[in-house]
Amino acid sequence: MTNLYKTLSLFALLLLIVSCGNDKDNNFTLKGNIKGLKKGIVYLQKENDSTIINIDSMVISGQSEFTLKTNLEEPILLYLKLFKNDGEEHFIPFFADKGVTEITTTLKHFNYDAEIKGSKQQDLLNEYTKVMSKFNDQNLDLIEANLIAQRDQDSIASDSLNRASQILYKRKYSYTIQFALNNKDNIIAPYLALYEIPSANPVYVDSVYNNLTENIKNSFYGKKLGEVIAERSSK
Q: What's the pLDDT at 20?
């Protein structure tokens, strides 16, 4: 065991001791299972003033299942981080709300094999990312076809594929905007406007914000979106 791993393990244990003393204040539980994991550290993290901070952790030694806890005031995006001393970063983002969320994944494909069950917000995010995955697959097909066209010096085919790529890009943005508008009463709407379409026409971003319910406007992401729009307008 390296000195770095020993230090991080000790740090994680200290965090766990502290968190155990505050269990009565916790209203959120993450139950996880990383198949194939024998040794490592898992962290529950959140965004805080543009930085990511640890809010709970657990040392994995022999078992693949773990439980992490925290207290939530409202639904928010959290991160499950895995440290396995391989020099790489391993994260799974997910929407958490009061109650229990379950994440099952594998050590080999930590990010890609993740199955997440829990909040209504996460269910919507799953629905959204499933469609985005199809768009991304189509885009990869277009890129591959364009590379072949360029190799064969087929400018007509290349131009056609470039146009198809631009149309697909617009369809992705349109889908995201419409998805946000259709879910104006859910925190997923301002989240998507903030992180998925930040470079979209301001008119569409404003439309998403203006259609939010008052409760969502006053949420963490609703307030953040309002601040972004206000800052843009002031410039």
A: 47
